[in-house]
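Checklist before submission:
- one chain only
- standard amino acids only
- sequence pasted in full

Submission:
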Amino acid sequence: MNSIQNLFKKPFFNSEKQLIRIYLIVCILISLKIVFLESCDNYDCFKASWFHLIGNLDLYLMYPQEYHTEYNYSPFFAFMMGAFAYFPNGVGIVLWNIVNTIPFLVAVHLLPVSVKNKVFLLWFCLVEFITAAESVQTNSNVAAFIMLVLIYQQKEKTSWSSLFLVFGFFFKIYVLTAGVFFLCYKNKGAFIVKSIGWALVFLGLPLLVVTPDQLIFLYQSWIERLQAQSERNSMSIIGVIGDYFPNAVPQGWIVLTGTIAMLLVLLKKEVYHHLQYRLLYLAGILLFTVVFNPGVESPSYIIGVAGAALWYINRNRPVWHGWVMVLVFVFTSLSVTEVFPGYIKDNFFKPWHIKAIPCIIVWFICMYELYIYKPGSTEGERSAQIS
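Returned file contents:
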């Protein structure tokens, strides 16, 4: 046992710089595996969106001769993909996955927690990061943007915090959940004005390649696509309730209940005065983003698992909280890997949305703490200063 403990004390397991290298190496290796051994429908869809945009086509129709997934992103996202569209897939996929890795690493590095806790968060999220990277998805960036909104609000840099909020929204709408953080800080007026300015920029950038009428049509189609997406069988509390209590609770009421629970936390004075409490609220927001998301999929859980890890490192935890984290790691992160036989995954984990349940449990615990927990007046602030 001592030899195992000594092994995990070595720099390889405790160095943030080493973990950053591991993430980047894993990102590149996964990308090369996709390039040489697999196809990538998601990237084909992203790449094609640029050509559909400049061709004045409806981004939100299916194009089965090009890809077989649905395009659920904004017209600005399609415009942004112009930076990747002309690369061969072998280069584009590697670059795209790197672009979806670096912001996550930067956000974790900037979190106002100890290096030890950053290392724990990165190790704990690694499997979920691999799942997101294998699908060439954007969810690592979603987690990053949500964290960066709070980080730069804490630094009183409203230009950056509003940029990450608005860019994140146009990148993937889930980032909008981070909008609540502006209520916790001063300079609310400046944040709102700058957010409106950034929104006008990102809203209008596609006008460089499409007409105003076409852009209006595309945003109308995007709204319709988001409404249709919300009606699918989600891997969230919505899907879990639907499995166990079919037609018992309307989806809208479930989402509204979770939203109200998150907003009522803003009535607590601690959220305006204690950084430690704000970090706990950030953990709750990250968890909420997947737990109550009507369109969430397996690769989205990098967001929720990051929230669970941030919740765990927020304060000294009893032993049973450690076992809850074991549940998150085993049944959320590992449940879609080869650790479990395909029969179990296909006939038990997937149909019953087992992946979602541990994060749901952590969200409820986190919410309980947000309502009853009173951080120390100085201890939390001293242990979590932003440099």
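Reviewer check: Confidence is low (pLDDT under 50) at residues 1-5, 377-387.
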